[in-house]
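User: Can you model how tryptophan sits in this protein?
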Amino acid sequence: MSVVKKRETFSSGLAVFFATLGSAVGLGNIWKFPYLTGQNGGGAFLLVYFCCILFVGLPIMLSEFYIGRKTRKNAVGALEQLKPGTSWKNIGLMGVSAACIIMFFYSCVAGWVYFYLFKAIVGDFVGVTLEVAKAQFGAVIMGPLSPIIWQFIVLAVVAGILTMGVKQGIEKITKTLMPLLFVLIVICDIRALTLPGAAEGVKFLFHVDFGQLSAAAILAALGLAFFKLSLGMGTMMTYGSYFTEDNNMFTTALKVALSDTLVSMLAGLAIFPTVFSFGMEPTAGPGLLFMTIPLVFSQMPLGNILLIAFFFLTAIAATTAMLSLVEVPIAYLSEERGMSRKSAAILTATIMFVVGILATLSVDKASVLGHITFFGMGFFDLFDYISSNILLPIGGLLIALMMGYSIKREEVVTELSNNGKMKVAALVNVYFFLIRYVTPLLLIVVFLSSIGVLKF
Ligand code: TRP
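Assistant: Here's the modeled complex, given as structure tokens:
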């Protein structure tokens, strides 16, 4: 049963931009991007990542905006309305599951961030050395109780905000805090880049050596592009359904992708110089952010205050990204399943918490559940791998195929030109070329080569 309700929209073009950027910018930039770049060899990985953003990310983002704004519905309802009676709506259902799977581990890492914010406030990081920073991270993830409690707090905050449906609030939060986050990362950069030996880190980030690039690394870059831009599972459809009528969705997609990539690069420029300056390994994995940032600030005037600000803003970025993730199942349950937003929020958050504990207890081999593995991965890594490297790219492929081969060009022109108000014919041609041939082909090739069917 569909519940008819008046749908809100964001209040202006600027609000659309910041809310969408608020979804894109999150732990992906500050936590995942640096550690994946570190594990996969630096510059060459980065180059592949840029190509994925350009040829796969942008066309799919535009497709999702189109689907959302044209139908003004949640991910499942939107596809059902666009292609009634077909199985395309399963993309939406897959998206709802993907949102949960991502949240299983995302809420865990967000819990560490909240915990780090707390520790920074009480002064735990004053004057830390590399050894201490490593030991502290180990203690935080090992818990076993404290990371679960912080994960619970994270989910309660997210569910609480979404229950109140404070879109106005989200708008305001993203509009003021996104620019602030930016300024703080730049301060981190200045500090990191003036550390002794910083140049090595910059070299690592920008030196392209294709010898370093494996098929697995290319799949990771592709998965990261989806994860970063919140694609392949209905988040951008859902947000698109709140866009204003006169929004130029081409420029919104481009501006969001560019700004998001800029934030990732700035995070990389804060972290890698520090890694090399302190003689750490760039391949340290998920702990990279948590072990380096306290070091960046430790020897600096006002360091602890800046550290508090840094983790505060990272917590905000993670939270606004989670709002967009959890909004997908909530919009679905409340619009298609007749639940109230409140029960939908409680149900979703409860599932995310219960299964999320499995992720939290299996972060490290030595964790409580660390010994349980699937294809060599614990729950934490498994949830991450299944969502980023499998579900999101498959969702993206299906979206590309649907848009490219079963939606009429005229309809796309009408919607993307805001009913003929903008001249978009040439851009739509480029869009269709990409979404029909380039995007699906790249997705399929990367996928087949990473599972070893195609060899180069
Ligand atoms: N893009 C966010 C980040 O980088 C995470 C995120 C929000 C996401 N919504 C999503 C990832 C939807 C995949 C799909 O932190």
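A couple of observations from the model: The pocket of tryptophan is lined by residues 23-24, 26-29, 102, 227-228, 230, 233, 235, 321, 324-325, 392 (CB under 6 Å). The mean pLDDT is 92.
User: Helpful, thanks.
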